[in-house]
Amino acid sequence: MTQGPPQIGYDDFLKVDVRVGRIVQVDDFPKARKPAYRLRIDFGELGVKTSSAQLTRHYPPRQIADYFSEVLTLGVMLGEGDVVLVQPDRDVALGSRIL
Q1: Quick check: 65 and 31 in contact, CB under 8 A?
Q2: Could you report the per-residue pLDDT of 44-57, keeping only the tens digit for each?
Q3: What is d(CA 33, CA 52) in angstroms, rounded to the nearest whole number?
Q4: Closest C-alpha to 69, from 39, 44, 47
Q5: Which region among 6-15, 33-42, 58-67, 70-79 has the lowest average model confidence (pLDDT)?
Q6: Percent of the chain with pLDDT strictly greater than 70
Q7: What is the pTM assigned to this prediction?
Q8: What is the pLDDT of residue 49?
Q9: Residue 65 scores a pLDDT above 80
Q10: Three-point CA angle 92, 59, 15, nearest 5°
């Protein structure tokens, strides 16, 4: 029998603060070891945060070179280097919590 990934309870999931944001600026990131973009993401009343997105593999938030990534950008990996960003199916207020 094949085991799936470990599971957490709903209370643990609620500890993760996942919000809706809009990418407002994208720049190449030549200092990154692997191809990446520097992002500025608008979270409404929560402000504009920075992120780095590597579209060729799963990306954990961390400092890349001298660029501090404040938030994780979520996407669906379809294949090697093929990522679709997660987004709501209609307009919602920026900064809305995802549950």
Answers
A1: yes
A2: 999 999 998 875 34
A3: 12
A4: 39
A5: 58-67
A6: 87
A7: 0.78
A8: 96
A9: no
A10: 55
CB of 62 within 8 A of CB of 53?
Answer: no
Tokens of 2: 């094949």
Query: How far apart, in whole angstroms, are the C-alpha atoms of residue 32 and residue 16?
Result: 27
Question: At residue 46, what is the residue type?
Answer: L
Consecutive H or E run containing 10: helix 10-14
Distance in angstroms (rounded) separating the CA atoms of residues 31 and 37: 10
Cite the beta strand spans of the chain per DSSP E. 22-28, 37-42, 48-53, 63-64, 67-68, 75-79, 82-85
Nearest to 48 by CA among 40, 56, 60: 40
**pLDDT attached to residue 59:** 42
Exposure letters 33-49 (e unless 16+ CB within 10 A, then b) = eeebbbbebbbeeeeeb
> Which amino acid, one-letter code, is at 87?
Q
- Phi and psi of 27, rounded to 5°? -130, 145
Q: What is the pLDDT of residue 84?
A: 82
